[in-house]
Specification:
Layout (H helix, E strand, L loop, with lengths): L3 H12 L1 H4 L2 H8 L18 E2 L1 H9 L4 E4 L3 H6 L6 E2 L2 H8 L3 H8 L11 E4 L4 H12 L6 E3 L2 H9 L1
Parallel strand pairs: 1-5, 2-3, 2-4, 4-5
Length: 158
């Protein structure tokens, strides 16, 4: 049986920057199509934002699919319990995987397009807002993001 870390490393080596080099090489070699990440400074829809208190409640009731879109080194340095790390650069192809492949790679339930408990987070909220845009474009219409990110989580947990 292959270990999770081995399978994940293999997956990231196929689609990630670390093994494929620059994004253009990854796209050419791995035949991936990606969308540009757009950072917008407009205020997000309030219904798309999860507060610290809401996230705590969701975690306590185990009713959340929490995805950390930071880089693996950031994730290893500190994380919200229960979060699954999918770096922002890998999010779109990861959300396009079949549920079986998703579960094999991430050892987590694959999110459904109608799930209302999908939450993205990053360090401060910018990448998670981009992740939310990507997810919504792919049809995950009820996805949300924790705008305070790991920074707020760590400050609140002190």
């Amino acid at each position: 049986m292959l270990s999770y870390l081995f399978v994940r490393r293999l997956y990231l080596s196929v689609i990630g920057k670390t093994a494929c080099g620059t994004p253009s090489v990854a796209i050419r070699v791995c035949n991936l199509r990606t969308s540009p990440v757009n950072f917008n400074d407009t205020s997000p829809d309030p219904d798309s934002v999860v507060t610290y208190e809401q996230l705590l409640s969701m975690l306590a009731s185990k009713n959340v699919q929490l995805f950390d879109v930071r880089n693996p080194d950031e994730f290893q340095a500190g994380r919200i319990p229960g979060a699954v790390n999918i770096p922002l650069d890998n999010l779109e192809p990861s959300l396009k995987l079949s549920p079986q492949h998703f579960e094999l790679l991430f050892e987590a339930k694959a999110p459904g397009k109608e799930d209302g408990n999908i939450v993205f987070h990053c360090q401060r909220g910018r990448r998670s807002a981009s992740a939310l845009d990507i997810a919504r474009r792919l049809g995950y219409t009820r996805a949300r993001h924790f705008a305070g990110g790991y920074k707020e989580w760590a400050e609140q947990k002190k």
